[in-house]
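@channel sequence for tomorrow's demo:
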Amino acid sequence: MDGKYLKVPKLKSLIRIKLHRQIKGVIKSITLTKKTSGKYFVSILCEEEITEMPKTNASIGIDLGITDFVILSDGDKSDNNRFTAKMANKLTREQ
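C-alpha cells (generated this afternoon):
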C-alpha cells in the first residue's frame, strides 16, 4: 500500500482506495473484484492478536418483554419503540 493507493502485482497500474479503517495485524489474503461500472472493491483479511477481557465474576439477568423491550436485573429499562411494526405497516401500504 502506498498512502491512498494499492499496488497489485498482477496489474500494471495503482488502484486508488478509500481506507475505511486502519489495517491491524498481519495481512493474510486480499480479494480484489471489479464491478461492471469499472470500480474495484478490495477485501483484506487480517490476523490480529485478541486479548481476553478480565473476569469480573459479575452476572446480570435480562428479561425481554412486550411493554419494555429489555429489563435488566440491575433496574435498567429500554423502551420498546415498536419500530418493526411501524415499518411492516408502511411496507404493506406501499406495496
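heads up for whoever presents: The mean pLDDT is 83.
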